[in-house]
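Homework help board

Subject: predicted structure for assignment chain

Our instructor gave us this sequence and asked us to write out the predicted structure in token form, then describe one feature. I got the tokens but I'm not sure how to describe them. Can anyone check?
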Amino acid sequence: MTELPHATSRQTQFFAAFAAASTLLAACVSGPAPKPVTLGNGKPGYVVACNGTDRTWLDCDKSAAGTCFAGFDTFDKEEFANATHIWRNLYFRCK
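My token output:
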């Protein structure tokens, strides 16, 4: 039986750094995560927050589409802003 070579300390550090960077990148790319809520009509749904100037309503829509593979219905949208920040909430329900 052939023995596999052991990873050097430098290789182990590289792979650990690569794994950490990949995890951070995945978190950034995935966008905002929807949270379950009870909608104003009493039915279950979700809310996703797309806050800040680097996020748009399109980011909210993409997140909802990723949650609801058969599509979604928008229940409500909220947007608040001040001189330095924008808050957006998309309330939706899966079809």
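Reply (TA_rk): Your tokens look well-formed. For the description, you could write something like this. The first strand starts at residue 35 and ends at 38. That's the kind of observation they're looking for.
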